[in-house]
Specification:
Blueprint (H helix, E strand, L loop, with lengths): L13 H5 L18 H15 L19 H17 L8 H15 L3 H20 L10
Helix pairs in contact: 3-5
């Protein structure tokens, strides 16, 4: 098996194409109608990887990756963040519900593992604890 790439400006010649058993064309944007050799090789290698069931492979996790947090653990994270933000009077010109809705969306989109969720919760806890140690009264959290 051989893979033949054409020139960036002209592609393969008709003679080259006559010798090929199969031809692959990588669709491009009309404004950028060619790929350099490295780009074309990367796209083709990726397609071959997917064709041999590479899509079914589980990608390696980070060396410190942990299980996903449970719903309860995520709620504890959100609560700790919210408490920390109340402690620094973050909501004085904002609606707490809107801020927390946005933070929930951002954090959920990131799909944190348990270690990451606990780190985010620790931020909230530490902010609140720091403000308490300094004797700074925090905004009242509505019930």
């Amino acid at each position: 098996v051989a893979i033949l790439f054409g020139r960036e400006d002209r592609g393969l010649t008709n003679e080259d194409l006559d010798r090929c058993h199969a031809v692959s064309i990588i669709p491009t944007d009309p404004g950028y109608s060619s790929l350099n050799l490295a780009q074309a090789a990367l796209v083709l290698a990726y397609e071959v990887f997917l064709a041999i069931d590479g899509a079914g492979m589980e990608m390696p996790k980070g060396r410190r990756a942990t299980r996903p947090p449970t719903s309860q653990e995520l709620e504890e994270t959100f609560s700790a963040i919210e408490d920390g933000l109340f402690a620094i009077d973050f909501y004085k010109a904002r609606k707490p519900e809107a801020v927390m809705r946005t933070l929930r969306t951002v954090i959920s989109r990131a799909e944190p593992d348990l270690r990451e969720a606990r780190l985010l919760a620790a931020l909230g806890y530490e902010i609140k604890n720091y403000m308490d140690r300094k004797g700074v009264p925090s905004s009242e959290k509505p019930d």
